[in-house]
């Protein structure tokens, strides 16, 4: 069964293993090699489709993670992974 973005948005995707949703995960790194963006979506999702939950990790001057922000301040599966660097986070 293919999980559609609308299923994620409606919270109807409940298959879990060891307490973790079975989602595709993408990670993008900054110039220091730190994970900067983390995206999750249904397996088989295209990175150009608006079906991703994207979070941004903020680091201090010593490269220690200090915050994890969500795109547009909303934890929704409706962002485009390919657009992650131009989106706002809070």
Structural classification: mainly beta
Largest sheet: 5 strands, antiparallel
Radius of gyration: 14 Å
What is the H/E order? HEEEEEEE
Oligomer: single chain
Task: Furnish the topology, listing elements before pairings.
Blueprint: H1 5-9, E1 16-17, E2 20-21, E3 24-29, E4 35-41, E5 50-59, E6 65-70, E7 79-80
Antiparallel strand pairs: 1-2, 3-4, 4-5, 5-6, 5-7
Protein architecture, described:
The protein has 90 residues and is mainly beta. It is 6% helix and 39% strand. The protein contains 1 helix and 7 strands, in the order H-E-E-E-E-E-E-E. It has one helix spanning 5-9, and strands at residues 16-17, 20-21, 24-29, 35-41, 50-59, 65-70, 79-80. Strands 3, 4, 5, 6 and 7 form a 5-stranded antiparallel sheet that branches. A two-stranded antiparallel sheet has the order 1-2. The longest helix is centred in the N-terminal third of the chain and has 5 residues, at 5-9. It is globular, with a radius of gyration of 14 Å.
Keywords, separated by commas or semicolons:
single chain, 90 residues, mainly beta, 5-stranded antiparallel sheet, two-stranded antiparallel sheet, 6% helix, 39% strand, globular
């Amino acid at each position: 069964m293919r999980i559609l973005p609308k299923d994620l948005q409606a919270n109807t995707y409940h298959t879990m293993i060891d307490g973790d949703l079975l989602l595709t995960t993408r990670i993008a790194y900054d110039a220091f090699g730190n994970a900067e963006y983390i995206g999750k979506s249904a397996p088989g999702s295209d990175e150009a489709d608006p079906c991703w939950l994207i979070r941004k990790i903020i680091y201090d001057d010593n490269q220690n993670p200090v915050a994890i922000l969500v795109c547009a301040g909303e934890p929704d599966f409706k962002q485009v992974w390919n657009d992650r660097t131009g989106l706002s986070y809070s």
